[in-house]
Amino acid sequence: MELIKEYKEFLDNGKTERECVKSIVAMAEKAGFKDLASCKKLSAGDKVYITKMNKAIALFVMGSESLDKGMNILGAHIDSPRLDAKQNPLYEKEGITYLNTHYYGGIKKYQWLTIPLALHGVVCKKDGTVVNVVIGEDAEDPVFCITDILPHLAQDQMKDKASDFIKGEDLDLIFGSVPSPKNAAKDEKADKKEKDKSKKIVLNLLKEKYGIEEEDFMSAELEVVPAGKARDLGLDRSMILAYGQDDRSCAFASVKALLDFEGKTARTLCCLCVDKEEIGSVGATGMASQLFENMVAELVEKSSAAYSEILLRRCLASCNMLSSDVNAAYDPINPGLYDKDNSSVLGGGLVFNKYTGSRGKSGASDANPEFIAKLRKVMDDANVSYQMAELGKVDQGGGGTIAYHAAKYGMNVIDAGVAVLSMHAPWEVVSAYDMEQAYNGYKAFLEIK
Predict the structure, then answer these.
(1) What is the pLDDT of residues 139-190, one digit of tens each?
(2) What is the DSSP letter of 165?
(3) Residue 228: CB partners within 8 Å, gap ≥ 6?
(4) Three-state DSSP class for residue 319
(5) The pTM is what?
(6) How far apart are CA 191 and CA 194, in angstroms?
(7) Contact between residue 271 and residue 282 where contact means Cβ atoms under 8 Å apart
(8) Which of 31, 242, 353, 446 has the fewest beta carbons closer than 10 A?
(9) Residue 184: CB partners within 8 Å, gap ≥ 6?
């Protein structure tokens, strides 16, 4: 169970993209990988990594074949649904200071009420200083929360649809409070200094501990996540309960599989961990950008006699890729949402998803059966447990991954990951057995010709 122990530590130390990249770099360097920027030329057997804005990373093991023969790629994403602090986030109402947030990714807003929350991220100051912030994870730290209406007064709220229980603009964290000045709620001429006392105390504490001013929030990237560590779930400890397992479960298993690869390889091997998948893979660190293309161009330039654009294109078109992403696990409490014969189950092993998308496969990447047949043989030869599945019933909804962004280059790509219960909730559930099978399956895939 050493793999699961390492996995839970990875989750605890990587609740943001930046924290994940930092952990992956540390793991890679321990395994002998070097920053590509420090290498003038690349040869077979070289192990290198490239980072982008500290929020995306790619690891490469150079093969003996020319890059135009393609690569074997494990591609995951390391962002997860959360709440982001706005750029002008602090305000006070009646002695309570709040942190104003903007939710990120697909969440059920009501799930974030009344649970302990932590603040992770960076504050970038004008002098170039980058301040790392983590509040709420240490046993002695304070935590934060979003309040809810007491049942005694919730008659109107309980008539709303679940999506309307709480508005996005009301997902604000309690950050501090002081006793309200007498009649502050009624007296509009109350001393402004007294009415802002709670906020000023909070700002003083932030300055004392982190050296930051209120204006520094304008150049901050602060993420609100559930406070607490990954835990074993069930008396038999067969499952893991943790935040961010979509898609850090697959990211960890992919990274670990590549780092544990031994021996020589003909094809160049790659593990790619990107950002922004939960909001459409946009931005400079998302798969929809030229991020990966630019990374591979650097390899071409450092491993060839002269840079060649056609070599780059041939490389990308000749790749095999597993889009290492999770799938919805069959939920026995809500069976009507699933086609049981085409659903993934906890404990069923690695999940292959031929296509994702919504309804009529909108936004999907549909893998070639020839590629799937090759994968079946590789998995069977390696004695890996796996299953073929869809997300849910055809007209029930849907979702996408980074697969279709990779497919635009003409490469073979299919989604392959672990099944998750309570996906996108603050706390998600995966099977420890599935994590082990994903790791074994990813290792087997790296050997594919």
Answers:
(1) 999 999 999 999 999 999 898 988 888 999 999 999 999 876 555 555 555 5
(2) S
(3) 116, 118, 137, 243
(4) coil
(5) 0.94
(6) 5
(7) no
(8) 31
(9) 94, 95, 190, 194, 195
